[in-house]
Structures are given as C-alpha cells and as structure tokens.
Amino acid sequence: MRSFSVGLVVVTALVCLTPEKVFAQQDTAAGPRFREAFASLPEGRTVKVLRSSGTTVGQYGGIVGDSLALRTSDGPPVTLALDDVEAAWSRKHKAGKGALVGGIVGVVLGGLLGAAAQSFCTGLSDGGDCGSVSGNIVVGALGGGAIGAGVGALIGAVIPGWKPLAPAPGR
After folding, report:
1. For 6-122, where are the E strands, in sequence order?
2. What's the Rg (C-alpha) of the chain?
3. By the 8 A CB rule, do 112 and 60 touch?
4. Which domains does the chain have, with CATH numbers?
5. Averaged pLDDT, 82-111
6. Cβ(44)–Cβ(77) under 8 Å?
7. pTM of the model
8. Which of 38, 66, 70, 140 has the fewest other C-beta atoms within 10 Å?
9. Residues 4-25 pLDDT 10s
C-alpha cells in the first residue's frame, strides 16, 4: 500500500509540475500575453516597451526566465521583468502600404499622361499612326502604376512605424 501512495505522489507531481504549468503559475495576468507576443519575434527586431518607470527602446534579445532581454544603444544589455511590462510595440516599415499608394497614384497619373500624349501626338501628326486613345491610356496607366509602386515602396521602406505586440488591458 505504501508503494502505491508513493507512486501516486510521483505521478501527480510529474503531471502537475510540467514546465508549461510552472511558467503559468509564475506569470501575472499580463505575463503570458507578453511571453507569447515576444516569442513570435525574431531576435534583433527593434522593440519599444512601456513600463510604469518609463519607455525603453532596444533590440530584442529573447526571453530569459521571467525577463525580456534588450540590447540598448546607450549601454549594456538590460533585462526587464515581464510582470512590469504594460505595453509593447515592434518596429515595422511601411513598404507595402507605400507600394499600394504609389501604385494607385501612378495608375491615375500614368493614364492621364497617356491621354495627354495621345492628344499631343494627334495635334502634331499629319495623319501618322498615334495608336488608339484607350491603348495609350492603358500603357500609360500600367507604366505609371509600376513606377509609382516602386517609388512608393522605397519611400515606405524608410518611414518606420510601430506595430502593437500586446497592449495592456484597457488600452
């Protein structure tokens, strides 16, 4: 009977003290959200962390126990307790949004330029082939869209923004 109760205690301890449950017991309500949010980030990504003592910006270095490791530009690496984190953001660039906006603007301006080129060619031509109006508009729109998307992507790549990782409840 004694060996049965010892075995039952050992099995219960193994089931109840798995690493996931140990971490879950140590975390506050915000801890698991931030642990999961930071786990999906690649190391080296620039992050901004809001705590009650202020804001820290640095390169993400990973999760160490119950702390977040950051490399800051103004000193040695720091560790911040996940329990103290109120909100966090990751640096993102706007290349996709820039390409979309630039492409739309390029299509409109390119189409207008194609139409203007058609009327300019017709005014100068003595019966020569200037192509169709719709063909020139389409070619101008496609060319303008491609050029606009490229320029917009380049502009968006140099304009950074912050993407929320896990805001605090009520924010």
Report:
1. 46-51, 54-64, 67-71, 78-81, 85-93
2. 29
3. no
4. 19-93 (2.30.30.100), 95-159 (no CATH)
5. 91
6. no
7. 0.54
8. 66
9. 444 444 444 444 444 443 333 3
